């Protein structure tokens, strides 16, 4: 099932530089693992913002929440989830 | 270039049924042509709403606007455009 | 899977009384069928408003959207969908 | 009487880890006691958020407020209360 | 139990003058009956607006909703309900 | 003259416990004096929130502002003032 | 006493031209009478909008409401009232 | 030219008392100089808030911005500027 | 002086096609005259919307308002005006 | 391609004065380089605010994002991007 996810990141100014670096490195690895597995279908940077629009393709709400709440940046994010489905005008049965 | 587009449709109640049908048929054909050409990369229905999230891959703002303002449903839509770019954590050079 | 749904109804003033009555009767039957089948788990009126909070327990986004867009009142509703999951503090494995 | 409650949690970053753990343990026990007593009828996690939708079944506003303001996490929550009642289309006399 | 209620009235322009007069007369009688019974404790006009803040003292959510949805002006109102309780600093046990 | 006042309290987390206690005790005394004098006609807690709806009956804007800005909690409050007047449907000449 | 008032006008398109002209003429006369009497202290057009900021100097809320609800354009206005008082830094005792 | 200005002040809690006193004294002197010169035409306190509505009569945007950004409290203010002009119903050619 | 203006157009559906055409033709001529005179410095279409961002360079608020309220589309526009000035980092004395 | 960019700056109070000065000097140089290159077409201060409206003329979203996220003040800004295109009523083929 598909979910549209908006993630808006706000890093606190007093986060030590090395801790920030560690978190960002873990975030990147975490995201790329999920992209490789096909669960994190798309991730796009929003121009001019420290934010992204993503599309997830997971089993159910539970799996989505496990993934999102496991994000190394989860505590620094505002997250909005929107359930998506096939559009009646889509030319593909399975647009992911 | 990629654009994230939110389209929210409100059909006026006094639109005659056959005119509605005609517009929707034209909208579907219009959308499917653009999907086949690769310009309308994704279109997803938002659960519970007469609305969609779409991703366009076009030359520039001009082409995007020509496409959107040419939508048979354009007069009945609230549209929001967000420019997207490759996310630094994306595993693909070219995630469309 | 569980979905929290907010439905806010606005009936247009010029809807003929008998058409309104017909739609409301169909809406009630439609809703009660789904309640009996267990898919429409809860429906509560919000005090002072022509609106309700509901909880649906369906297969996936598709089934939810089919149900919601099939509501006889769908054209007169503002609908907001929120995916729900088991809360880690819930005492029941399966709180529906 | 039924109340729909939205609780949105924001833990301050400088809360010491052990204090956080203590508060969360107390919150869980507090919530589970009330669930067992039947006063906290439902609690659902909202996907992707540190927030929940709950339904309370209590005597009156007073009891609700005593319960909510007694939450160990109360100081870290944004809370919205909505009074609910039986929906005229509900198939159950008593949908809790 | 006490409820704070905000009522904002918008009369459609095409409501015939005599129908408007009839509705307003019924609204006034309806309101005054409830004021006399003690259920509609307070009603204040908001300066410069066709709106009021009211306080109701009723048995439960059900009775409140029956009263509000029975208002002759109900279809032309935007209504917001807030449950109230005794304030810990109130000098009266029973501030209605 | 009557004023409807919404007060929403946010105590900063780093306020020392004894200072908080002192402020709250002064706030309570201050409020009760004004209630006894008849100037602070009503104060109701909003269910589930550290907030209240109040009604003041004072000479003029000046007196209202002197009272509100003198609140020991003033620095920690978001305050909204709405001027009220007799409602044409009120059964009492003088509903305070 | 002083009140800051924001008035935003929306004339319905189907108001006949002569009725519009009549209402506007009456509105102007009504406003100018009140300006001459000193009750409507200031009226300024907001650049680019069919709206104004005004300052009224009247006896009390009642008089303000009588004036505002008597505006020939009242039914076509969105009105917001804010009570004003002397600013502690004002050089005039009586800045109207 | 006339400008309507809304200024909303939020003093940070950790500003030392004497620094606060110094800033407020300078703010008052600064404001009174401009009032005397006729550039700061009106300043009114908004009831119940640490905020004011003001009217400035200055040469142009530049002068307005120089004045506003020179306010000793500028860093602690949220400021909204609205250009004003003579209202067609004003009885004075020059309502300042 | 420079003004940033946002114009959002909503044409009513029941405007006859030829009247629409006439208004749009007049709007275009009106705008182009002002562009030629240098008063309407910039006009840009916002991608995906029937809206524009413009920059005006006029004598004062009066002239701006005369121009805006004279727009053939004025009755069908939502307009927001923001006064602009030279930015301290601008490389040009006179960036219009 | 043209982009309309709104930048709203909030400098944290505890930023040391010399660090602030260094950042602002770098910001100015950075902005002026881009203005000279023609990529940062316009920058205007918004009257009364620590904010600006700018227009960028760059290759694509990527270049815009590189420029914006490279701003020395980026971490202290709220940024909104709007894609612009030639307006059909523009007298210039190329209004930058």
TrEMBL record, chains A, B, C, D, E, F, G, H, I, J:
Pathway: Aromatic compound metabolism; beta-ketoadipate pathway; 5-oxo-4,5-dihydro-2-furylacetate from catechol: step 3/3
GO MF assignments: muconolactone delta-isomerase activity
Chemical reaction(s) catalysed: (S)-muconolactone = (4,5-dihydro-5-oxofuran-2-yl)-acetate
Pfam families given in the database record: MIase
Keywords: Aromatic hydrocarbons catabolism, Isomerase
Cited InterPro entries: Dimeric_a/b-barrel (IPR011008), MLI_dom (IPR026029), Muconolactone_d_Isoase (IPR003464)
Domain Muconolactone isomerase: 1-89
Annotated EC: 5.3.3.4
Highest taxon of the lineage: Bacteria
Keyword field contains Phosphoprotein: no
EC main group: isomerase
Subunit field text: Homodecamer.
Family the UniProt entry places it in: Belongs to the muconolactone Delta-isomerase family.
Protein name as it appears in the record: Muconolactone Delta-isomerase
